[in-house]
Amino acid sequence: EVQLVESGGGLVKPGGSLRLSCAASGFTFSSYSMNWVRQAPGKGLEWVSSISSSSSYIYYADSVKGRFTISRDNAKNSLYLQMNSLRAEDTAVYYCARVAPVVTADYWGQGTLVTVSS
Amino acid sequence: EIVMTQSPATLSVSPGERATLSCRASQSVSSNLAWYQQKPGQAPRLLIYGASTRATGIPARFSGSGSGTEFTLTISSLQSEDFAVYYCQQYNNWPPRLTFGGGTKVEIK
């Protein structure tokens, strides 16, 4: 069974940093690209970043470019999102999602809440 | 950037009735469109990909149609567990960009 479990969320002050993790199991993690998608409270879904299976290709939404860094450790079956210079508008539930051959998000984790507030 | 517009924002439907949700793209996305269902406090769940292919385990009452810029998700006979928010997503120009529609909330009439 495919499982994705996010962790690392919490309350952080504006300008602060946080590192999110996503632990994957039930599939060959090293064979799949992965996404981070976020959802602000009461709002819709927003794509944040993508990383290819070997980390050769990395993409970011304009809203986080230069502040967030996506990475992965295939030996540990883990995906990461380093978030720096956090702003109030980064407050959201952050989901990791697997990229399948035919669609960009077939399995999702349960999400981790990041709150940016003073 | 491709903008995805969903309508209506809220759809009130009685159990057992048909629900028809629309999604429009600002430019052609071919058939590179997915639909997701999200219930309160839960992660999104993939329903449809390739505009019309049901994901594994999705009941046949869910169907998708369309191509280019106009897409439809139809729920043929609403069950109590189908009341949720539905999002469309284009992946035609991914990488590098993925975009979601604003969502349609299907509520009990």
Give an overview of the whole structure.
The complex is a heterodimer of chains A (118) and B (109). Chain A has 118 residues and is mainly beta. Chain A is built from no helices and eleven strands. The termini of chain A are far apart. The model of chain A has no long low-confidence stretch (mean pLDDT 96). The radius of gyration of chain B is 13 Å and the shape is globular. The relative contact order of chain B is 0.34.
The coarse overall form of chain A would be globular
Structural class of chain A: mainly beta
Query: Which percent range describes the beta-strand content of chain B?
Result: over 45%
What is the percent of helical residues of chain A?
Answer: under 10%
Shape type of chain B: globular
Rg over alpha carbons of chain B: 13 Å
Oligomeric composition of the shown chains: heterodimer
Helical content of chain B stands at under 10%
The major β-sheet of chain B equals: 7 strands, mixed
Greatest interface by residues involved:
A-B, 22 and 24 residues
| Cα-to-Cα separation, first versus last residue of chain A | 40 Å
> What is the rounded Rg of chain A?
13 Å
Judged by helices, strands and strand pairing, the structural class of chain B is mainly beta
Beta-strand content bin of chain A: over 45%
Low-confidence stretches of chain A: none
